[in-house]
Amino acid sequence: MHPQLSDKKLVCKDFIQALEDCHLSPWARLTGGCNKYKDAMNVCLHGESVARSARNRASAKERQAKREEATKAFFED
């Protein structure tokens, strides 16, 4: 299972629940009957990961700009 599911329960909740429901049937789980649910969950998790990376990148750029501005102001004095 994916270790990052603990914080994704709100975003990909429907996909996670569908996979967990499918895994209740041992036959479906062992014969690949749950693969479509797992693929859908992986797509959802990947989309969330890409969105989180974009937010982190934007935040890092803002912090870097603030830091450069503070450094510039410090050395101008």
UniProtKB/TrEMBL annotation:
GO cellular component: mitochondrial inner membrane
Alphabetical keyword list: Chaperone, Disulfide bond, Membrane, Mitochondrion, Mitochondrion inner membrane
Keyword hit for Chaperone: yes
Domain of life: Eukaryota
Keyword field contains Mitochondrion: yes
Major site of localization recorded for this protein: mitochondrion
Pfam families noted in UniProt: Cmc1 (PF08583)
InterPro entries, per database record: Cyt_c_biogenesis_Cmc1-like
Annotated Basic and acidic residues bias: 59-77
Region of interest (Disordered), residue spans: 55-77
Subcellular location field: Mitochondrion inner membrane
Family: Belongs to the CMC family.
Purpose: Required for mitochondrial cytochrome c oxidase (COX) assembly and respiration.
Name of the protein described by the UniProt record: COX assembly mitochondrial protein
Lineage: Eukaryota, Fungi, Dikarya, Basidiomycota, Agaricomycotina
